[in-house]
């Protein structure tokens, strides 16, 4: 096996071991020794890739953000109306995050490290860029109120979805996250959507909230 390929395999083992360990014991209670032992590697192999546990957390945040955004983009890239894609995309990402262990841990670390490292800022920034673009498309298609500002709307959508996810975890009821997402959209739609389109998107939301997305990735 070529050196670069072996290096990538080792890095993957470290990340996977860290995700498993963080899932079982949480980030604060996990020591580097736990991860190294679980990955069945030497300290030297670990430090070749990551100089600290925080650097490893940053890598997980980056990968989780990339995976979730890629999942969202598979939906927003369709030819359906932009607002349909936006609503559907948030549900798909919700299901994906529940099913994908790395994404699930990445979301926890994202909250932990918000404002503390560059990875969290980059993930949030990428999400905002995509949401602004999608809201802008919805406005161009005539489905939004004329006074809706895409950037402001994107910030509210992202903040609302992150808040719903955090609340579900804090109350120990992750399984009701889809219901929280649906309720969030029920409140957002009247504030965003043109009166002529509102009933249509309310019906779309009602259907979407009952549909489970095919899981992408593994838990």
Protein traits:
DNA-binding; transcription regulation; disordered C terminus; Arc Repressor Mutant, subunit A; TetR family transcriptional regulator; 219 residues; Homeodomain-like_sf; Tetracycline Repressor, domain 2; 0% strand; 10 helices; 2 domains; mainly alpha; transcription
Helix and strand run: HHHHHHHHHH
Q: Assign the CATH topology of the largest domain.
A: Tetracycline Repressor, domain 2
Q: Tell me the number of strands.
A: 0
CATH class of the largest domain: Mainly Alpha
> How far apart are the first and last residues' alpha carbons, in Å?
28 Å
The amount of beta strand, in percent, is under 5%
**Please, what is the oligomeric state?**
single chain
The stretches of 5 or more residues where confidence is low (pLDDT under 50) are 215-219
Question: Gyration radius, to the nearest Å?
Answer: 19 Å
Structural class: mainly alpha
Determine the CATH superfamily of the largest domain: Tetracycline Repressor, domain 2
Number of structurally distinct domains: 2
| Dominant shape | elongated
The overall average pLDDT, rounded, is 90
The tally of helices reads: 10
Largest sheet: none
CATH architecture of the largest domain: Orthogonal Bundle
Helix % is over 70%
């Amino acid at each position: 096996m070529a050196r670069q390929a072996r290096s990538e395999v080792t890095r993957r083992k470290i990340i996977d071991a860290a995700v498993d360990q963080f899932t079982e014991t949480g980030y604060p209670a996990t020591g580097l020794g736990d991860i190294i032992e679980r990955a069945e590697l030497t300290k030297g192999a670990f430090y070749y890739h990551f100089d600290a546990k925080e650097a490893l957390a940053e890598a997980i945040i980056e990968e989780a953000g990339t995976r979730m955004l890629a999942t969202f983009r598979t939906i927003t890239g369709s030819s359906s109306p932009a607002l349909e894609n936006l609503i559907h995309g948030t549900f798909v990402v919700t299901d994906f995050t529940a099913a994908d262990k790395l994404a699930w841990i990445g979301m926890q670390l994202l909250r932990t490290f918000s404002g503390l490292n560059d990875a969290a800022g980059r993930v949030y920034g990428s999400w905002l860029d995509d949401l602004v673009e999608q809201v802008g498309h919805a406005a161009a298609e005539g489905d939004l109120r004329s006074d809706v500002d895409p950037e402001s709307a994107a910030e509210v959508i992202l903040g609302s979805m992150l808040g719903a996810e955090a609340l579900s975890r804090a109350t120990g009821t992750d399984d009701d996250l889809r219901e929280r997402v649906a309720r969030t959209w029920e409140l957002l739609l009247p504030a965003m959507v043109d009166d002529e389109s509102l009933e249509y998107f309310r019906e779309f939301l009602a259907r979407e909230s009952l549909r489970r997305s095919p899981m992408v990735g593994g838990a």
